[in-house]
Amino acid sequence: MGSRPYRRRLAWSAAALLVAGVAVPATAAASGPDDTSDAPSLSAAHGTKQKAKNVILLIGDGMGDSEITLARDYTVGAAGRLNMDKFPMTGSYTTYSVDKNGKPDYVTDSAASGTGWATGQKTVNGRISKTPGTDKPMTTILELAQRNGLATGSVTTAELTDATPAVLASHATDRSCAGPADMKACPNDTIAKGGPGSIAEQSVNHKVDVLLGGGKARFDQKITEGRYKGLTVTEQAQKLGYQLVTDDKALKNARVGKPVLGLFAPGNVPVEWTGKAAAQGGTEPQRCVTGNPERKAGTPSLDEQTRKALQLLEAKQSGKGKKPGFFLQVEGASIDKRDHAADPCGQIGETAALDRAVKVARAYAAKHPDTLVVTTADHGHTSQIVPLEATPPGLSSTLVTNEGQQLKVNYSTNTPGQAQEHTGTQVRIAAQGPQAHRVLGVTDQTQLFGTIRTALSLR
I need a labelling partner for 372 at 20 to 30 A (CA). Which of 232, 274, 325, 350 fits? Predict the structure, then answer.
């Protein structure tokens, strides 16, 4: 009885908008706050078993509550729900990093935040899975999964050497040490000094089963030290048995049984949507362009990469002597990058792309209920939805949503002309499957390491 008046009001509102000539997407009219048609039951959220066979972790880089709300309002409407909104267990976690003495640094970067869930320990901004004071490597959740015989994968829309994928399969004093030619900030990590080499070299040396993303230019750098001296990192990967794929056709044809290295752009994978960046004094109302001429034909979408990664990892489970199960991390990286650039359309398009990957992950879990699916962010960011009549001192843009309504978004965490900044706010974490209840309440991102380790029974 309690929901009927709301449903009548929603139907009346949709009808009124149609009379006024405003197009209302079906999702906005049909999917209200009390719509649970796509949500698993609470028992399914905990899982039929206390332990998980698989874990899928989806990271929206810079995807705070404001970024989620902006994407929701624009794409499915204020009363609609994204796929990431439909998890049965939802909480928040804190994201601060630390200084070299272990004292709080209230605004994290992606390297320190990723290290938090990858290792269960805090570190300093810029560091990749190494201790804050002594700069020693810390074991990552991916390394634990490998030691326990699980298949592993990492998918991103950034360079595969960027901070969030890097924290899983490498240890570096500084996140800038991406390729063999980028080691200036990491002298003790060089192979000549007995270190593990660049992030690119470490990633393939770890023999992660599936590596998909951008950053081909990093992997095409020549190695100057050690066993693979004179080869590019790409050639090193091929010597280690990797199949190299560079477009959607090659990805579809990737064979089971050999690791896959997918490099789909020289740098970060170009974003899906474009539009006018925010400006001082605002912009004229705009609709986002759902296309990008910089994104070359044959570039697989994030959801396509996620679907293929799941197929490859599941097939790996049946290999001789392999323990069933896998760990997969999927990152929507350029939510953050377009937030830095005060580009609302690019930011919304990348959030929508991650949301489609969330749909793929939840569909897999629906058929494999022993799969823990978690979606979260590494840190908050700058975009804020403000009243249309507001005159922000920074950069702003007015959008025309799919509901035909105007929405103003403001970027004011730095001086106009400078890159916008991360924020120190807590961010959402949501989950379904075995151990999903562990995300409830307010936790810290380091506790996600324990949730995954417990779910997979990793020794």
Answer: 350
Torsion, Cα of 164, 169, 171, 175 (10° steps) = -30
The closest of 134, 102, 100, 136 to 119, measured between CA atoms, is: 136
Classify the phi-psi angles of 79: left when phi > 0, otherwise alpha if psi is within -120 to 50, otherwise beta.
alpha
Distance of CA 149 to the CA centre of its chain: 24
Instruction: Please choose, from the candidates 182, 249, 211, the residue with its C-alpha nearest in 3D space to the C-alpha of residue 330.
Output: 211
At 1, the pLDDT band (50, 70, 90 cuts) reads very low
Identify any residues that bridge with 94 across adjacent strands, giving them in sequence order.
Answer: 444
Tokens of 44: 């399914």
Q: How many whole angstroms separate alpha carbon 436 and alpha carbon 380?
A: 22
**453's tokens:** 């380790």
Q: What is the dihedral of CA 162, 164, 166, 172, to 10 degrees?
A: 90
What is the model's pTM? 0.90
Q: Quick: pLDDT tens for 203-250.
A: 999 999 999 999 999 999 999 999 999 999 999 999 999 999 999 999
- Which 8-state DSSP code applies to residue 321? T
Domain-located, residue 44: no
CA distance 371 to 367: 9
Sign of the dihedral defined by the CA atoms of residues 254, 259, 261, 262, in that order: positive
Which is the catalytic residue, given 110, 334, 383, 397?
A: 110
Provide the domain count of the chain: 1
Range with the lowest mean pLDDT among 163-167, 219-223, 312-316, 396-400? 312-316
d(CA 114, CA 119): 8
Please give the full DSSP string across 327-373, using - where no structure is assigned. Answer: EEEEEETHHHHHHHTT-HHHHHHHHHHHHHHHHHHHHHHHH-TTEEE
**C-alpha radius of gyration, the chain, whole number:** 22
Tell me, yes or no, if 457 is annotated catalytic: no
387 belongs to a structural domain: no
In a domain, residue 404? The reply is no
pLDDT-based confidence at residue 26 (cuts at 50, 70, 90): very low
Q: Give residue 64's domain range.
A: 49-381+425-456
* pLDDT tier for residue 318 given thresholds of 50, 70 and 90: low
Answer yes or no: are the C-beta atoms of 251 and 348 closer than 8 Å: no
